[in-house]
Amino acid sequence: MKNITDIENDIASIKEIMERSSRFISLSGLSGILAGIYGLIGAAIAYYLIYYPNSPFGYRFYYVNESDIVIKLFVTAVGILGASLLTGFLLSQQKARKQQLSYWNASSKRFLINFSIPLISGGIFIACLIVRGYFGIAAPACLLFYGLALINGSSYTLGDIRYLGLIEIGLGILCSLFPGYGLIFWAVGFGLMHIIYGTLMYNKYDK
After folding, report:
1. What are the phi and psi torsion angles at 40 (to 5°)?
2. Quick check: 64 and 70 in contact, CB under 8 A?
């Protein structure tokens, strides 16, 4: 007859199997760190396009209201997002191999679908804002929709990304209250927060 310790080990094993089958757990913390670095690079490019050689902290007097600059910023943002997603895919695939798990399975598909719906919807909405000339709303909208995408996908992967999503939404709301400061919020949300999150997740799940 099994003792209590054996039963507890069996329950833990069953719980782990269920977790693996229902959640995409191969998400790499290192990809979050690299996404943050890409985000800071994107913020540096945006600073050069908008404010250089002026101080970034005096830019309340500088508003992004030229369509050619906004288009360049939008292309930069799409490029950074694409690089981040590609890096996340490659590193998570590598992690899945180490864990002897299938990367493309039902849980990863559910995560991708639920993550993509707010992200793609937000991208289309932001493009519409830019076309209509509502440039000042684009930066907070990026943060808000990205946060919603993280929260929507968190049920199908590591639940910790829900907190990152909430932070992104909070930054998006604050950004909407301080027009002209979008670049700083963008750098914090897509750069610094990703580096912090990625480091925590790497130490918690990847080591």
Report:
1. -70, -35
2. yes
Note the pLDDT tens digit of each residue in 28-63. Answer: 778 889 999 999 998 888 888 777 666 555 545 455
Rounded to whole angstroms, how far apart are CA atoms 25 and 96?
Answer: 8
Which whole-number Å values give the CA distances from 128 to 23, 69, 71, in the listed order?
34, 16, 12
Query: Above 90 in pLDDT, residue 145?
Result: yes
Given a cut of 50, whether residue 76 has pLDDT beyond it is yes
Tokens found for residue 148? 């919603």
The sign one gets for the Cα dihedral 82, 84, 85, 91 is: positive
Q: What is the pLDDT of residue 151?
A: 92
Tokens 């050619």 — which residue?
68
CA distance 47 to 51: 5
CA distance 24 to 89: 12
Indicate the pLDDT class of residue 97, thresholds 50, 70 and 90: confident
Secondary structure in 3-state letters for the chain = CCCHHHHHHHHHHHHHHHHHHHCECCCCHHHHHHHHHHHHHHHHHHHHHHCCCCCHHHHHHCCCCCHHHHHHHHHHHHHHHHHHHHHHHHHHHHHHHHCCCCCCCHHHHHHHHHHHHHHHHHHHHHHHHHHHCCHHHHHHHHHHHHHHHHHHHHCCECCCHHHHHHHHHHHHHHHHHCCCCHHHHHHHHHHHHHHHHHHHHHHHHHC
